[in-house]
Every structure is written in C-alpha cells, then in structure tokens.
Specification:
heterodimer; A: about 150 residues; mainly alpha; about 70% helix; B: about 140 residues; globular
Amino acid sequence: MIRPLSSIIIGAIFGIGIAISGMANPAKVLNFFDVFGTWDPSLIFVMGGALITTAIGYRIVFARQQKPALGPAFVLPKNNSIDTRLIAGSATFGVGWGLAGFCPGGAIPALGLGYSETLIFVIAMIIGIVVARQANKHFQSNAVIA
Amino acid sequence: MTEFTPWTSLGGGVLIGIAAILLMAVHGRIAGMTGIMAGVIPPLGSDWSWRLAFLAGAIAAPPLFLLLGGTVPFAVPVGTGAMIIGGFIVGVGVFFGSGCTSGHGVCGMARLSPRSIVATVVFMIATFVTVFITRHVVGL
C-alpha cells in the first residue's frame, strides 16, 4: 500500500509543479519559444529550477543510498548511444511541441483542469505512441528476417 | 501575451525537481513522463502500478490546487487541428527519442547524460524553429 500511495503523492507534487510553473498552459509555452514575437521567458525559470534542484538532489541520493527506499535498485537508462533514432525522434517531438504547445509532462497534469483541447491532444499523443510502437515492431521483425 | 512569472515558474520548477528526486530516492525511477505514460499503454509491462499511481496523482493535483484557491492560467492559441496533429507528432517523437522535457530535459540533464543533453538541445531547437515558422513565416 505504501508503494502506490507514495507514488500518488510524488505524482501530485509533479502535477502541482507543472500547474504553477506554466507548463500546463500552451499559450505560455508557445510564447517562450516565440523570441521574435510575444516572448515570455518564464520557462527558463521552470527548466532552470527543475534542473538545478534535480542535479543537487540526485547527487545526494546516489551518495547516501545504495538502493531506493521502496525498490530493489535504481533503474537508470543503459543506452548511451547518440544515434539517428534519438536525434530524429527528438526533432520530431520538437515539431509537435511547437505546433500544439504541449509536451507530455505538461499535458498529463493539464488533463485535470478539464479542458477539451487537452483531452484531444492526449488522445492524439497516445495514438502516436501506439502507432510508433507498432511501426517499430514491424521494422525490427523485418530487420531480423533480412 | 502571457504575463512574465519568474517566481511562480521557478517555484513550479523546484517542485518538479523535488518530485524527480523523491521518485528516484523512493522508487529508483526516472521521472520522465514519456516512460511513465508508455508503461501504462497496453500491452502492460510488469511494473505498471507505480506508474498509474504517479499519473493519477499528477492529474488530480491541479484541480485540488484550484479547490484550495490557486489559479492556473490556461489558453490554447492554436486550432483543434494543430492539437490533433501536434499530439500525434509528439507521441511518435517521444517514442523514438525515448523521452521528453521531463525525462531528458530534467532528469537526464541532471545526470549529465550525453544522450539526454543531445536530445534536449535537438528538441528545443526544433520547437523554436517550428514556432518561428508557424508564427512568422506561415503566419498562423
């Protein structure tokens, strides 16, 4: 019971952070990127605050703990390759973010605000993930045959 | 126009960071929305429950914040078509890029992961260029 409960609370801290930071507001996100138009530099403070806090906190966690409090081990990405897949995927994500003003971390907490545009975005995003997953499976199985 | 909000944005950013630290300290996981979300889209993997709990907390928090008297400005300056196409493209991109702003931009960068640094620089540039084109070249 403590595992899901702690996860809900941590998710809620994340959601409040997103909501008050402005990341759940597509107008604000798009204005951040519109340096030559209606520029709103606020999101520098979101990214900076989140990044510096996390960098310091991770150091303390990894220095003091051998393993997480409620899990067997720290699960960190093992893939270190900077390949076409990473770059093309990230560039594609950026195009979508620039069109809609929502990234996944902004859109999911925004669902709670109850606007239909957010729901439309999230459904389209889930379809995108499912289609990409299927395409990836297809290409990989073809590659094995070849 | 949106109001410049350095303090609330900084405060929100710090909270996002605290959530990322706690998820690592307690569950040993990266607070990346892409991975957390993809993990609850069927077929489910083995450890979907903490992910679903995290998502439930993240969605429930903003309305709770409103009930407690907080305000969350919200406006969508683009059409429904842009939300549908943008959403689909984001889904495809974060799948192949293995992460988004939270996973690469916050957690990965905080670990000084070269992969995440490259991903973040690439998607920030792509977003900037897309906004420049839609607002100043095409004039949407």
